[in-house]
Recover the amino acids of this structure.
């Protein structure tokens, strides 16, 4: 879908708009005191990331992001918020604000330096320049069957482990919340 | 220039038309304009159909209840929806003092936007659609979850407890019914071998309702729960909750919420037509025979058929009780959807490339499984019926000291 | 021209914001939200890496392996969903037992 326009100014402009929106929503999530509004900002951030996945030719992952994060996880969080008191000023900062900000900034600086300083095209024919590797367009334009194949062949053991994890989570969450009724 | 949209005849035609008009180097403008024209057609088509749907549903419900329905405005009352819209537009736009300004503004807009987004992937004729995504089927069930969030925001932002309770009820129901709804489509995906809606239609040599009776049933029930249609319209149970999450909305915002509700009905009907009765194709004949009618007309006919079906269901079934609704999703629909998926998967493994006759064998197996399962589950649920366990405790309220 | 660097730095920015939130919020639900941001940041990085750096020469026989990054991200999504469900169950238990969801006040194990 995005093969043709990966290098165009339109792509760049859309990317910057999405990046700014996503980061702004993320900042709101950690700064807002009203928990419900923070959850709304979180949904905005999730949707922005889903759009970024589309720009990375990962449409399947984008719709999973919308379905699981924007649809299910955020609703779960909002239900959790509803069950506790004092949501209006519920999310206050503790006394660690300044050290935490310094730590986060330092971490960002380190990662940014490492990222910008690394030669990513070590193996020569990487798709760094155009965005899409030579001969790989077909995979990206019809990715769901390929992802299914990968999940059920190479990654079948992790898939089973994930299923087991989800079952355990379900049972655990029910057991915890039901208590000794 | 070769467009990457070979299968989309409408888009390529429009693109060619605009590309001839535009000067050199403005191909992207032609691209944009062609897209905008189709967006215009799709959005206005959905709007018009929604207006028509409200009129039709009121007339049909009237017939079911041996009364006339709206018949005063225009010939046969056909202009009634426009009168309604006009009334909503000139009403005062109230905002309760307790309401959260931003959320209250955002909720109706977000809801309509989510519903209209779904229309983008529905192919309404051969080669006439806006987009053919490789994740089309997931898009159909994924994007309406944003409307769920909007519903919650509307209930919470109203600052009204009835609205909040209605929203909480609706959201809990919606996320429960999403699960069987998605799983019920797995059978369709297995048979079609693709998530693109155009591929799904083209794969239907036999309409999938014949091959997937159980999947169709589960999807129909789960979808009517997703739309908050009767018998699942618990969140607006007037006797319990006034009007659910849209209690406080009035004027234009209320109009938008109604548009979203009935627009979703139109779009779900379109989705049913595409996924289960072969979209723009003539459903009665095998592919060797003629179409008889243009694809768009077939599509519209099927859409109207499903609208009538939903009106019929609404007129017939009583509303469910709130404790039955959740149990129904998890104890009946979800296992049925799983059984459907497993049986279909086994059949697809048995005949990976079925001939036309083998398709009928698959259909027969599926119908047998569907009937056995439905009978077994209804008997099981009848025997283990959930009876309300909560007892009402009368509390003496001390007389107020005056 | 948007390249791998852009996506990776964006991911790092999101990660830092999430880290800041997870360290500073008092409310356990807000901490959970920040952790979701961390997961998402990692997902962006993983998908961008797979998209931009997988050499086609290595994947010439089976082009699907170019999508390995997306599969990794899918597993991360699964784990994150499990994490938030269990996390919320714990938060609700904590609220029932102590009447508070502030992580600073959950210190009964220290005594």
């Amino acid at each position: 879908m995005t093969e043709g326009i990966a290098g165009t100014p339109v792509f760049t402009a859309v990317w910057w708009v999405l990046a700014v929106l996503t980061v702004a929503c993320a900042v709101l999530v950690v700064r807002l005191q009203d928990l419900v509004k923070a959850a709304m900002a979180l949904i905005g951030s999730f949707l922005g990331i889903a759009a970024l996945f589309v720009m990375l030719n990962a449409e399947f992952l984008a719709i999973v992001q919308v379905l699981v994060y924007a649809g299910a996880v955020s609703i779960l969080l909002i239900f959790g918020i509803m069950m506790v008191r004092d949501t209006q000023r519920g999310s206050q900062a503790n006394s660690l604000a300044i050290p935490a900000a310094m730590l986060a900034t330092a971490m960002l600086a380190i990662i940014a330096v490492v990222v910008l300083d690394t030669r990513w095209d070590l193996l020569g024919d990487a798709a760094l320049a155009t965005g899409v590797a030579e001969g790989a367009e077909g995979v990206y334009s019809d990715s769901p069957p390929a992802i299914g194949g990968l999940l059920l062949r190479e990654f079948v053991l992790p898939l089973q482990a994930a299923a087991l994890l989800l079952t355990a989570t379900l049972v655990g969450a029910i057991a915890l919340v039901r208590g000794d009724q | 220039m070769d467009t990457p949209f070979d299968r989309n005849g409408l888009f390529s035609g429009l693109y060619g038309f605009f590309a001839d008009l535009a000067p050199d180097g403005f191909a992207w403008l032609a691209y944009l304009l062609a897209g905008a024209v189709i967006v215009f057609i799709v959005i206005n088509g959905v709007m018009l159909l929604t207006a028509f749907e409200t009129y039709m549903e009121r007339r049909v419900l009237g017939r079911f209840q041996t009364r006339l329905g709206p018949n005063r405005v225009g010939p046969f009352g056909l202009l009634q929806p426009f009168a309604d819209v006009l009334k909503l537009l000139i009403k005062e736009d109230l905002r309760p003092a307790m309401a959260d300004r931003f959320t209250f503004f955002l909720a109706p807009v977000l809801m309509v936007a989510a519903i209209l987004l779904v229309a983008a992937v529905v192919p309404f004729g051969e080669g006439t659609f806006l987009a053919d995504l490789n994740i089309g089927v997931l898009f159909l069930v994924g994007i309406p979850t944003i409307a769920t969030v909007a519903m919650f925001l509307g209930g919470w932002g109203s600052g009204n407890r009835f609205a909040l309770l209605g929203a909480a009820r609706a959201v809990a129901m919606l996320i429960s019914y999403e699960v069987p709804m998605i799983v019920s489509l797995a059978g369709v995906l297995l048979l079609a071998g693709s998530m693109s809606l155009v591929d799904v239609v083209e794969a239907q040599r036999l309409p999938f309702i014949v091959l997937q009776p159980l999947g169709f049933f589960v999807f129909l029930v789960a979808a009517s729960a997703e739309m908050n249609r009767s018998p699942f319209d618990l969140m607006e149970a007037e006797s319990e909750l006034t009007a659910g999450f849209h209690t406080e909305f009035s004027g234009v915002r209320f109009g938008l919420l109604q548009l979203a509700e009935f627009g979703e009905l139109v779009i779900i009907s379109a989705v049913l037509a595409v996924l289960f009765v072969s979209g723009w194709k003539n459903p009665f004949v095998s592919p060797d025979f003629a179409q008889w009618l243009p694809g768009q007309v077939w599509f519209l006919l099927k859409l109207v058929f499903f609208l009538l079906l939903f009106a019929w269901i609404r007129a017939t079934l009583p509303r469910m009780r709130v404790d039955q609704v959740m149990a129904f999703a998890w104890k009946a629909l979800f296992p049925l959807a799983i059984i459907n998926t497993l049986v279909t998967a086994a059949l697809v493994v048995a005949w990976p490339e079925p001939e036309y006759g083998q398709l009928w064998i698959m259909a027969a197996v599926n119908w047998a499984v569907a009937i056995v399962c439905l009978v077994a589950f209804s008997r099981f649920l009848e025997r283990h019926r959930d009876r309300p366990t909560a007892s009402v405790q009368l509390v003496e309220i001390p007389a107020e000291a005056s | 021209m948007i390249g791998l660097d852009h996506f990776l730095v964006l991911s790092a920015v999101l990660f830092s914001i999430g880290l800041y939130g997870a360290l500073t919020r008092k409310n356990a639900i807000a901490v959970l939200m920040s952790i979701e941001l961390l997961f998402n940041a990692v997902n962006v990085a993983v998908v961008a890496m797979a998209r931009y750096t997988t050499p086609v020469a290595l994947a010439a026989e089976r082009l699907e392996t170019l999508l390995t990054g997306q599969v990794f991200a899918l597993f991360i999504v699964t784990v994150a969903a499990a994490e938030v469900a269990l996390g919320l169950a714990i938060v609700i238990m904590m609220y029932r037992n102590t009447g508070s969801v502030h992580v600073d006040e959950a210190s009964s194990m220290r005594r």
Observations:
- Chain C touches chain A through 76 residues (CB under 8 Å).
- Chain C has a mean pLDDT of 84.
